[in-house]
Amino acid sequence: MLYSQLFTKTKKEAPKDEVSLNAQLLIKAGFIHKEMAGVYAFLPLGKRVLDKIIDIIREEMNAIGGQEVLLGSLQNPAVWEATNRWADGSIDVWFKTNLQAGSEVGLAPTHEEPLTALMTQHIASYKDLPVYVYQFQLKFRNETRAKSGLLRTREFIMKDLYSFSKTQEDLDTFYEQAKQAYHTIFNRLGFGDYTFLTFASGGAFSKYSHEFQTLCPNGEDTIYLDRAKGIAVNKEVYTDEVLADLGVDKTSLEEVRAIEVGNIFRLGTKFSSPLGLSYTDVDGSVQPVIMGSYGIAPSRSMGTAVELFHDDKGIMWPEAIAPFKVHLVGLGMDNDVVRTKAFAVYDQLLSADIEVLFDDRDDVSNGEKLSDADLIGIPHRIIVSAKTEDKLEWKRRNSSESVFTTFDNLITNL
Amino acid sequence: MLYSQLFTKTKKEAPKDEVSLNAQLLIKAGFIHKEMAGVYAFLPLGKRVLDKIIDIIREEMNAIGGQEVLLGSLQNPAVWEATNRWADGSIDVWFKTNLQAGSEVGLAPTHEEPLTALMTQHIASYKDLPVYVYQFQLKFRNETRAKSGLLRTREFIMKDLYSFSKTQEDLDTFYEQAKQAYHTIFNRLGFGDYTFLTFASGGAFSKYSHEFQTLCPNGEDTIYLDRAKGIAVNKEVYTDEVLADLGVDKTSLEEVRAIEVGNIFRLGTKFSSPLGLSYTDVDGSVQPVIMGSYGIAPSRSMGTAVELFHDDKGIMWPEAIAPFKVHLVGLGMDNDVVRTKAFAVYDQLLSADIEVLFDDRDDVSNGEKLSDADLIGIPHRIIVSAKTEDKLEWKRRNSSESVFTTFDNLITNL
User: Fold this and answer.
1) ipTM exceeding 0.90?
2) Residues B32 and B144 in one domain
3) CA gap A215, A204 in Å, rounded
4) Nearest chain B CA: its distance from A41 CA (Å)
5) Taking residues B277-289, what's their average pLDDT?
6) What is the rounded average pLDDT of the residues B176-196?
7) Mutation for testing the A interface, residue in B100, B128, B291 having most A CBs under 10 Å
8) H runs (alpha helix) in B280-321
């Protein structure tokens, strides 16, 4: 893409009321726009990052047999009353509104109830199980505090997968597959090394749930990490009893701040029983379906990547989720030789199917172009200038050294 | 995809309270699920159709220079108060709700205001124009009447593009490009031949707006069509004065029912002036930006296709938006020869990159498989049975005749 055609501008300052580091950088670099506290718009660069994150998650959900759907946001109270979660006291982040005729409807903060109700139309027999259903759908959460940028917003797209199994054993088998898929996802997103399986509170149907917590000083959660074992315990279940149960020793734990980037729950029959989701088993008996839920918010992953990967000049995107792979900069574009060569390199990169943002602007200084490249944070910066002659100047965003290279060598290395 | 792994079941009956033809067929065939009046979930087959429609629209918006964003649903009253559209009387389909701290927020019924406000951050000079920005974003509309299935829902994804131009002439030039793009889209979706440019009421900044109306007995709109000229007039502006202005003769007009599948508006400075979206021109003067808006709802297009293309057995999808290209049916799968051959054909189709739904079920009758294929409406049905021997039986959904053909011949024809 030509930078001159990108409508967003970088900014020197983020809005004064924006206190989170990730949103400050993303706003300054033109990835997002703050519409109000807890509500952000994704601009072209931000939409590209969001889509790449979504694509990675979708691939991994399909790989474990997920089938994609898209449910509604407006919620019929009836299905939530069946599970006693309609009252504002039971879910404290409800947004509610009214139809013209007067009846109250909600905005989905999560989707266990409507999906469980839906599945009663399609699950009847043991032959219909297991089934894994997921979506990328808006969640609305009426958060009292929304000051962490993309880490906690009042509306956001969530990937939520729900598993429907015959037995606890079948659920356990899938639960392990989902756990592995989550590790794969965070590795692919670029922050697997910072992300730890964390034991959190379970519920009526399982001793623990599991969170994926990414170490980060600005995280909202406190966890106790056993680095050697690669597992952690959320503060909410940090008791001597739990530590003994998990076989971890208090002295080997570090107290650290972290961002909850994913969570998986065994739901058991919590939703299937009250909503009548059951199946007829091979012996003719009628059994409730055993459920699990598995969530990741792509925008929170985007915010997490920025919290982890930046310096004082800007963002440093992991390659898999960067808006473009290459940031091509023409320096001194008023020189015809430079200009012609820069456009030729742009065309060659496009021909080689490499995603490239080409700073073709001729009304800004060289210094501005270079600082914009640092702020935006695309992994590979390629400079064409009078100095580069028949070579290209290639620098990785996370390195301070640049090298002069031929186009062919560059392509081989990319 | 293997039919045995698809979690949806076809149904003999749609819910009793579902009166619309498109929703009845889509529910029976397992494409959508009714969550409440005006709110539908998209099941795997429906999600595939929706995604194909979205992809076609996205390609055509990119082709005319559109840049994709994603705005919020929750609306800050301030930007709507600036244009006098916050009051319930000015937009009669608002859904409103409250933040925990008490202040009122809305759910976007459309996005002129927030996008115009956003663009003030990125447009300052004549050099920044023109810009074309679009999104696929939820709209919430508190409709009193939601009985037309996917044709009128209380929440739906809309593709809305907004153009930002320096002058009326620039707007007019882009407006014509968008008009052509819309014709291309409806042609690609498969109902271009039924879709007519229709003159509708304009506003302060233009005499007319334009709708794209698809002829359909179940449409909510009445239009007056001049078939020879290929244009129509909406009932709302059907006056002698308008007819004279457009040079159409009353006697050549048919009164027909139609579905509004798209609309384009010249907005002029209606939103840019009150929201302060202006640019500094080359002569140093400050001018308001001239805007246009361009909408298509992918789910309404999906409902329209079903209204147009069906028979008493089910849906007949246009090829470009069908959930799969081929519906492969194994009849008599208890015969090992048939079973082996059917799976081999399935693998061959996948290898040839052809999207195929393979009915591999062995617990339903042959008749049920064939009636499900008719109901679901995939364009090409391929049968493998004891009768087909080394050939395949190929029938188009919209034809009553089947032919026996070789695999190679089939691939050539597909």
Assistant:
1) yes
2) yes
3) 29
4) 4
5) 98
6) 98
7) B100
8) 298-308
Domain final residue pick, B256, B287, B311: B311
pLDDT bracket for residue A204 (50, 70, 90): confident
CA distance A259 to chain B (A): 23
Residues in chain B: 414
Phi-psi region of A125 (alpha: psi -120 to 50; beta: other; left: phi over 0): beta
Residues A298 and A343 in one domain: no
- A336 and A272 housed in the same domain: no
Q: Are residues A280 and A388 in the same domain?
A: no
Instruction: Give the mean pLDDT of A265-294.
Output: 98
Residue B317 belongs to a domain: no
Is residue B19 domain-resident? yes
What's the sign of the alpha-carbon dihedral A15, A21, A27, A28?
positive
What are the residue ranges of helices labelled H in B39-167? 44-63, 77-81, 112-119
C-alpha dist (Å) from residue A94 to A86, A141, A159, B13: 8, 6, 19, 34
Residue A112 in any domain: the answer is: yes
Contacts of A119 in chain B (CB under 8 A): 7
One domain, residues B287 and B401: no
Give the model's pLDDT for residue A205. Answer: 79
What residues of chain B lie within 8 A of the CB of A8, using their CB?
122
Q: How far is A76 from chain B (nearest CA, A)?
A: 7
pLDDT-above-90 percentage for chain A: 94
Measured in degrees and rounded to the nearest 5, phi and psi for residue B73 equal -90, -40
Instruction: Inspect the interface and report whether the beta carbons of A33 and B118 lie closer than 8 Å.
Output: yes
Other CB atoms closer than 10 Å to residue A230's CB: what's the count? 9
Residues of A in contact with B119 (CB under 8 A): 7
Cα nearest neighbour of A111 on chain B: B41
Asked if the Cβ–Cβ distance from B67 to A363 is below 8 Å, we say no
**Same-domain check for residues B272 and B407:** no
Same domain, B280 and B383: no
Contacts of A114 in chain B (CB under 8 A): 35, 41
Name every chain B residue with its beta carbon within 8 A of the beta carbon of A38. 74
Q: Is residue A271 packed enough to be buried (19+ CB in 10 Å), middle (13-18) or exposed (0-12)?
A: buried
Please say if the pLDDT value at position B153 is more than 90. yes
Contacts of A13 (CB under 8 A, 6+ apart): A28
Q: Where residue B340 sits, what CATH number does that domain have?
A: 3.40.50.800
Please give the average per-residue pLDDT across A169-176, as a whole number.
Answer: 98
Q: How confident is the model at residue A168 (pLDDT cuts 50, 70, 90)?
A: very high
The alpha carbon of residue B318 is apart from the nearest alpha carbon of chain A, in Å, by: 21
Which whole number is the average pLDDT over A375-396? Answer: 96
For chain B, give the mean pLDDT: 96
Q: Residue B370: give the domain boundaries.
A: 324-413
Q: Which of A311, A343, A365 is the last residue of a domain?
A: A311
Q: Flag if A107 and B127 touch (Cβ within 8 Å).
A: no
Lowest mean pLDDT among A369-383, B151-165, B199-213, B289-303: B199-213
Å from B149 to nearest chain A CA? 14
Neighboring chain A residues of B118 at a CB cutoff of 8 Å: 33, 35, 41
Residue B44: its chain A contacts at CB < 8 A?
67-69
For residues A305 and A329, state if they share a domain: no
Instruction: Determine which of A61, A122, A302 to mutate to test the interface with B (most B C-beta atoms within 10 Å).
Output: A122
Q: How many independent structural domains does chain A possess?
A: 2
CB contact under 8 A, A140 and B73: yes
Tell me the per-residue pLDDT of A80-125, one tens digit each, with 9 for 90 and over.
999 999 998 899 999 999 999 999 999 999 999 999 999 999 999 9
Residue A316 located in a structural domain: no
Write the CB contacts of B295 (distance below 8 Å, at least 6 apart in sequence): B158, B159, B160, B161, B262, B263, B264
Per-residue tokens: B115: 């996008």
How far does the CA of residue B120 sit from the closest CA of chain A (Å)?
11
Is B41 close to A69, i.e. CB distance below 8 A? yes
- Residue A362's pLDDT is 87
A127/B363 Cβ within 8 A? yes
Nearest by Cα to A328 from A406, A245, A395, A239? A395
Portion of chain A with pLDDT greater than 70, in percent: 100
